[in-house]
Amino acid sequence: MKNLTILGSTGSVGENVLRIVRIHPERFTVKALAANRNVEKLYEQAREFSPRYVCIYDPQKAKQAAPKFKRLGVRVVTGGDGLLEVATLSSVREVICAMVGAVGLKPIFAAVQAKKTVAIANKEPLVMAGKLLLETAAKRGVAVLPIDSEHSALWQCLDKQDPSFVKKLIITSSGGPFRNFKGALSKVTPAQALNHPKWKMGPKITIDSATLMNKGLEVIEAANLFNVLAEKVGVVIHPEAIVHALVEFVDGSHFAHLGVADMRLPIQYAMSYPERLENHLPHLDLASLKTLHFEKPNLRRFPCLELGYTASRIGGTLPAVLNAANEVVVEAFLNHRIGFLDIPEIISKVMSQHRLIRKPSLPDIFAADAWARERAEELL
Fold first, then answer.
1. In this structure, are strands 166-173 and 117-120 parallel, antiparallel, or unpaired?
2. CA angle 313, 266, 180 (to 5 degrees)
3. Least enclosed by CB within 10 Å: which of 47, 69, 83, 106?
4. Residue-wise over 177-190: b if at least 16 C-beta within 10 A, else e?
5. For residue 256, what are the β-bridge partners?
6. What are residue 237's DSSP bridge partners?
7. Ordered structural domains, the chain, with CATH
8. How far is the C-alpha of 304 from the C-alpha of 340, rounded, in Å?
């Protein structure tokens, strides 16, 4: 039996984690759930899974909801301190972080310090502070497991392989809603950018998919997770989303990870590792696929991907600056304050104006994050 804390339980990843718990109640118990504002969904989850704690990040909503949860026998905590508390519970073995944005960084570090296995679905912690996080985890003797489908695929392909045999890590991208777009990207609307052809995701990650910033962030994530240079991480467009990642070895062999396009596959593997459990997902029928397509991304048309490579090459506090500026300008685009092509332009300006710290501490990373948000707002 593995006891879990789920940070971000009301989002799509969190809900999928709970679907897996529902299928395998003999393997997993939920000890704590955390959400930002969706108290109604959190309450329904608490009724079904009976955690000891819930964290409602919004203090006002937590105060209003506490009596309701108390009747279930569930303790309510709130804010950053609440996240730290549920991430470090003595009875919890694995903490799953599916919170959007940088807010998950402190509880993840706290969980690692408390010697919890950490499974990370959101990109930001591994982008902002991936090297520092993995160094801390190594010192504490705990595992940091990727849930992002591409990085889970790389992890599985690399299993027990000598790192010196690896020539290149290759992650795939569906290409987003504008892969074959013939019009002017400067005129696209948030509604068009949110119309992803393959995935139903939250607004922020959907816009990142449209700009290919999601792949820029994933390049940084892969370089940090697998301790390689950015130049050893490639990106290919693969609209069918059947091959999630490949590893090219020095002898020319390629290992590829294939699977149905469902986040429950990488989530369950991170939850059950090193075992594999059965699931209720559709079977991958290779004969029905007929063809698979691959193409190079257009870096001139989608410069956010190149910004990811730049941040990874330079390192230090620059990935945190990239991530923070991106969060600000994506929100501005969604609110019709800027155009689609203003997103990479403003991020690039923020990055160029940053005073780099090459070997940052966690406070340095948070300071760079705060500076980048403020500077991006000024440029807006």
1. unpaired
2. 65
3. 47
4. bbbeeeeebeebeb
5. 246
6. 173, 295
7. 2-146 (3.40.50.720)
8. 11
DSSP string of 216-244, one letter each residue? HHHHHHHHHHTT--GGGEEEEE-TT--EE
pLDDT tens, residue by residue, 70-120 = 999 999 999 999 999 999 999 999 999 998 777 888 999 999 999 999 999
In the chain, alpha helices (H): 12-23, 39-49, 59-70, 79-87, 105-113, 124-140, 149-158, 190-193, 203-211, 213-225, 264-272, 286-289, 304-314, 318-334, 342-352, 362-379
233 within 8 A of 168, measured Cβ to Cβ: yes
CA distance 246 to 193: 28
pLDDT band at 280 (very low <50, low <70, confident <90, very high): confident
> CA 205 to CA 98: how far, in whole Å?
12
pLDDT tens for each residue of 7-51 = 999 998 999 999 999 999 999 999 999 998 899 999 999 999 999
Contacts of 162 (CB under 8 A, 6+ apart): none
- Asked whether the beta carbons of 3 and 53 are under 8 A apart, the reply is no
What is the Cα–Cα distance from 218 to 203, expressed in whole angstroms? Answer: 18
**How far, in Å, CA of 297 to CA of 361, rounded?**
34
* Alpha carbon distance 380, 374 (integer Å): 10
One-letter amino acid for residue 374 of the chain: E
From CA 309, how far away is CA 312, in angstroms rounded? 5
Give the model's pLDDT for residue 168. 97
Query: Tens digit of pLDDT for each residue in 195-236?
Result: 887 777 778 889 999 999 999 999 999 999 999 999 999 999
243-249 and 166-173: which strand pairing? antiparallel
Dihedral of the alpha carbons of 194, 199, 203, 208, in degrees to the nearest 10? -80
CB 11 within 8 A of CB 201: no
Can you tell me the mean pLDDT for 342-363? 97
- Distance (Å, whole) CA 127 – CA 312: 9
- For the sheet with 75-78, list strands across it: 75-78, 53-56, 28-35, 2-7, 94-97, 117-120, 144-146
